[in-house]
């Protein structure tokens, strides 16, 4: 088990106090998905339709989902299906790769994806919204950091 401390070095450049969300660029299926919101309160990883369509994967690869998805305002969300895709955080020797399930939904959003608890756990990421930073262990076994944008 790794020790993953955060320090004041991680907070450089952040204006405090803040309530900024942790937003980053995530590589999904080889495509850089900008404006991915890290949300430890979400029980699912979400890929919004706009980003899914830009990736040109095709809806025929979606798996039907029989359970309802409840949106931020408590209403049922139109769910197109689910898909398992490769996710990469970092580059080169700092990269971490996992396969993750995403629910594809068709609702307007300021974000292109939501990184929920399933992906946070699969990547064994430690999140600090205070530092707007995520720490993870790379495929090579080194401790790496990703700063929000």
UniProtKB/TrEMBL annotation:
InterPro entries: Peptidase_aspartic_dom_sf. SUPFAM superfamilies: Acid proteases. Gene3D superfamilies: Acid Proteases. This is Uncharacterized protein. It comes from Chenopodium quinoa (Quinoa).
């Amino acid at each position: 088990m790794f020790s993953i401390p955060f320090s004041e070095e991680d907070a450089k450049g952040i204006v405090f106090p803040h309530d900024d969300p942790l937003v980053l660029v995530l590589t999904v299926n080889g495509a850089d998905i900008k404006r991915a919101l890290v949300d430890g309160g979400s029980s699912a990883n979400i890929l919004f339709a706009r980003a899914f369509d830009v990736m040109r994967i095709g809806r025929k690869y979606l798996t039907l989902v029989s359970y309802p998805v409840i949106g931020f305002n408590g209403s049922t969300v139109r769910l197109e299906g689910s898909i398992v895709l490769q996710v990469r955080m970092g580059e080169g020797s700092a990269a971490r790769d996992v396969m993750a399930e995403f629910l594809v939904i068709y609702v307007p959003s300021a974000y292109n994806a939501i990184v929920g608890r399933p992906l946070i756990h699969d990547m064994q990421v430690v999140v600090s919204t205070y530092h707007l930073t995520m720490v993870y262990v790379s495929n090579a076994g080194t401790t790496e950091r990703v700063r929000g944008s």
